[in-house]
Amino acid sequence: MKDKQRDLVIASHNLGKVKEFESYLCGFPVRLLSQPNGLHIDENGSSFMENARIKAIAVANETDAWALADDSGLCVNSLGGAPGIYSSRYAKNDKDRINRLLSELVPFDDRTAYFSSALCLASPGAKILIESEGRCEGLITHFPRGEGGFGYDPVFEVYGTGLTFAEMSRTEKQFLGHRGIAFSLLEPGLNKLFKVD
Ligand code: IMP
Questions:
Q1: Among 1, 32, 169, 171, which residue has the least CB neighbours within 10 Å?
Q2: Tell me, what CATH number does 157's domain have?
Q3: 173 burial level (CB within 10 Å; 0-12, 13-18, 19+)
Q4: Which domain holds residue 180?
Q5: Ligand 1 pocket residues where CB is under 6 Å
């Protein structure tokens, strides 16, 4: 039984996500490739999973290789689940997104929230191979804390830790975070797919 290396495209230009995936996939027989520049994908799904499928299929078809996509975001209970699938479109950059979130939460006592990540692995021809979804529960802080991570990390305190994602080491975030949880649910399927007779 011998593993054969396979090209796998990470369907994202988000450096934070790409770094996380590089470390999750380091034990698999894959050659990781970047998503081609200039590919416009209309993320018009109505859930994280629908958007993950749209991205994985578009990139697999464009590159003629397997593609792994993540669609993720922050859902805040007092805001009816917003920003949710609109997390990256909530404002023009991370600082403004955080400021908008903190100001919209001012009237509310309930600051509970969760991050969700939907993962989809597709092959060319729009074939979905495996998919999974992971969640991480927490609270929105009153002020940003920590220097690590990306996106909303400085204002998301992971339930039971007292730390924001931005205050954690990369390893801690990967272990507790929504993408890490989604990836661990994808792993049994990946192990099967990569087994070569
Ligand atoms: P996507 O690239 O369309 O999936 O957008 C996801 C957006 O959600 C990102 O731009 C971030 O704003 C936010 N997001 C997703 N995952 C994380 C995370 O792990 N930490 C902080 N923000 C995240």
A1: 1
A2: 3.90.950.10
A3: buried
A4: 2-196
A5: 14, 71-74, 87-88, 97, 115, 149-153, 165, 177
User: Model pTM?
Assistant: 0.93
What atom in ligand 1 is closest to the CA of residue 179?
A: 19
Q: How many domains does the chain have?
A: 1
Instruction: State the pLDDT at residue 1.
Output: 40
* Residue 62 confidence (pLDDT): 95
